[in-house]
Amino acid sequence: MDPDDRELTPWERELQQEGASQGRGHTPDDGVAEPCVAPADPASASSRPAREPLPVSAEAQETPDEE
Description:
- By secondary structure, the chain is an all-alpha fold.
- It is 16% helix and 0% strand.
- The protein contains two helices and no strands.
- The chain has helices at residues 10-16, 58-61.
């Protein structure tokens, strides 16, 4: 589709600019950029859980005394 066929939205105009294919990768304070593209194969992503379970203290594992 030729961009001259219709009026472009601001987002579409931005995509027409040079370097637009690089995306808007966000760089947080820690300096690690987020990926612009998801992995092609979801199975290739890490199988490690997003958050490690918290360790349970020995006191928390004991059953309360029933009186």
